[in-house]
Predict the structure.
Amino acid sequence: MTSKTVLHAKHLEAGAKMVDFHGWEMPINYGSQIEEHHAVRQDAGMFDVSHMTIVDIEGVDAKAFLQKLVANDVAKLTVAGKALYTGMLNEQGGVIDDLIIYFFTETQYRLVVNSATREKDLAHINAVAAGFDVTVTERPEYAMVAVQGPNAIAKTATILDEQQQAVVAGMKPFFGVQAGDLFIATTGYTGEAGYEIVVHNDGAADLWQKLLDAGVRPAGLGARDTLRLEAGMNLYGSDMDETVSPLAANMAWTIAWEPEDRDFIGRAAIAKQRAEKSTDKLVGLVLESKGVLRGGSKVIVEGGEGVITSGTFSPTLGFSVALARVPRSVGETAQVEMRKKLVDVKVVKPSFVRNGKSII
Amino acid sequence: MSNIPSELKYATSHEWVRAEGNGEYTVGITEHAQELLGDMVFVELPDVDDEVDAGEDCAVAESVKAASDIYAPIGGTIIAVNEDLEDAPETVNNDAYGDGWLFRIKASDESELDNLLDAEGYANSIDED
């Protein structure tokens, strides 16, 4: 039994090839994944991300609850609308999920978590919430559309009314605001400028059609994956999961160690790993010759072996890139087992493209 | 249902073969195969003058999704390869039976053609997939 988002009919109308994505029937592409990728890098594309889970947290303990729940510290959020990326950890320091938290007031926050992990996330959030005076409310009545690309903001502006335009004008990255009936956030998963727009299910098809008419091109999960990988953004379940420390997943920057007495779940485990430098690390791999690095392949580095967690052909760069979890002793080159042969690759920081340009 | 031209012969491994006369045959992959693979990003072709046996893997089609071996549908000598695919692998997606051809073989034994499927046989074989 697969679920469908409220935009399902719009995808079929646009010629989508639909696939089962963790129980959701979602568009993998609308003809060409690579053309959709380029549309986002060069112009504006949109993704249906309504399968993602929106959870509102309210109550007098909301701040204290989130300071317990996630590795980053919501006390950093002081301006209404500001967002924070972080992980929810288990006691062993593994990543239960990664998420974005929007701050409205110290008693009111919004979380956006992954769809594939929805059930276990809600179970975990509710279990932790039991010790706090908060209410946890899932918001399935909302759909979400990500509009991304160098022209995404300008093209979206053409479909907003004057008041909405005024509200979003000059928004800094990683903020979310209520603009009329839309919640508009300057977040995304592509390394481009743009919005993620939360809209009531009843208005989603209309919003999609308006964006389409404004020249925003539908893009599927295939392009979403190549775009996020070029941008060096993690995919839960591939680049990290409950057995992987955030320190081994390029998520150290999403952990707040100060104040020292904030006892978030998993802190003891990852503090020990940090002190002992005992985890692997996530690096980028670049293959400038023919072939495509694929997830699951073995990586041989100085001092040991690792694994490709995500690999793809990079349409922007014209060659293959990958994220790999490897021993910290890794040098500037590595070898990857590809189709039974060992191939030399460059080791770089785990980020390849930003705002349309190579940053290798 | 994807396009399966009736004048071609097919291998169950999704290659098509077109008779060009004089014992020469052009080989490509079917529209169904390119749909399964998705956007092509690299195509590795054999060298001209290579001798291949029927069923031998002699090329690789690498798409956004997977690397896939291409098998010689019949044995013989490679007499031409589609060098345009080097810069435009997407031609395999856009024109699988035309400009997206992969290589041309001079057959060593034309009776091997009898082992291939006709359009109807191929259509049935992909129905079973």
